[in-house]
């Protein structure tokens, strides 16, 4: 039995993705447990009754059950890219993503479940956030300036989803700087590294070591 921290994750979940990216970039090894959301393992529910992913269980029993807190934990272990950034601006950007953009994104993605308005309407609401990113990225390389921060990592998986709802529209959408930023992330070792596929975890399965240094 390894004493590595245990990460409950779901490959396509944007919250889990941002957490895995920070863990990956930090070079910290964790034991990854891929979760099927409709059949959550009892071990996850016991550790974290709210049972969202990602959840990180440290070897001393501490449970970290919010993706942003997992990012912070990872960057405390090691932050080779200097992503840690406690500035109010970075926090505000992440908050605008999680508390505003994400809601419109879900409605845009699943517009058929929200027939009160059209998909285009929902997309236009979500575009307020994308336009803000465009403004920033048209004058600087990363969202917070010339250096990437936890905001870039935290926001990226949601922008990826937004672009993926209607890829044809996205190709010509008036957000060239966001497109470049997104494409850079998609091509990055950090993103491809964290998107490896794992079978759903079973209690008797051997540990799956998730770490940048494991040679992937
Ligand atoms: N605020 C949480 C949100 C995590 C979250 O909502 N994850 C989704 C998957 S993307 C989830 O686990 N949903 C529970 C479910 O589908 O049962 C975080 O940042 O970690």
Description of the structure:
- With 216 residues, this protein is an alpha+beta fold.
- It has two domains: 6-80 and 195-214, Glutaredoxin (3-Layer(aba) Sandwich); 88-191, Up-down Bundle (Glutathione S-transferase Yfyf (Class Pi), Chain A, domain 2).
- 51% of the residues lie in helices and 7% in strands.
- It contains nine helices and five strands, in the order βαβαββαααααααβ.
- It has helices spanning 14-26, 42-47, 67-77, 88-109, 119-137, 150-165, 167-172, 176-187, 189-194, and strands at residues 6-9, 30-34, 55-57, 63-64, 209-210.
- Strands 4-3-1-2-5 form a five-stranded mixed β-sheet.
- α1 runs antiparallel to α6 (150-165), α4 (88-109) packs antiparallel against α5 (119-137) and α5 crosses α8.
- It is globular.
- Bound molecules: glutathione.
- Glutathione binds at residues 10, 13, 15, 37, 52-54, 66-68.
Brief summary of the model shown:
This protein has 216 residues and is of the alpha+beta class. The protein folds into 2 domains: 6-80 and 195-214, Glutaredoxin (3-Layer(aba) Sandwich), CATH 3.40.30; 88-191, Glutathione S-transferase Yfyf (Class Pi), Chain A, domain 2, CATH 1.20.1050.10. It has helices at residues 14-26, 42-47, 67-77, 88-109, 119-137, 150-165, 167-172, 176-187, 189-194; strands spanning 6-9, 30-34, 55-57, 63-64, 209-210.
């Amino acid at each position: 039995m390894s004493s590595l921290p245990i990460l409950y994750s779901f490959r396509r979940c944007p919250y889990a993705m941002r957490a895995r990216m920070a863990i990956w970039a930090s070079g910290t090894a964790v034991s990854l447990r891929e979760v099927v959301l409709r059949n959550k393992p009892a071990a996850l529910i016991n550790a974290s009754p709210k049972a969202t992913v990602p959840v990180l269980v440290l070897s001393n029993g501490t449970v970290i059950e919010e993706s942003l807190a997992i990012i912070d934990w990872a960057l405390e272990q090691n932050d080779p890219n200097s992503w840690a950034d406690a500035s109010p601006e970075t926090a505000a950007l992440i908050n605008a993503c999680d508390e505003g953009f994400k809601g419109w994104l879900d409605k845009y993605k699943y517009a058929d479940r929200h027939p009160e308005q059209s998909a285009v309407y929902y997309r236009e609401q979500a575009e307020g956030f994308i336009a803000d990113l465009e403004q920033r990225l048209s004058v600087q390389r990363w969202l917070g300036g010339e250096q990437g921060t936890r905001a870039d990592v935290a926001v990226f998986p949601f922008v990826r989803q937004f672009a993926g709802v209607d890829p044809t529209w996205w190709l010509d959408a008036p957000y060239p700087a966001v497109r470049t930023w997104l494409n850079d992330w998609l091509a990055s070792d950090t993103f491809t590294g964290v998107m490896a596929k794992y079978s759903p975890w079973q209690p008797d399965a051997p540990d799956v070591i998730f770490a940048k240094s494991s040679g992937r």
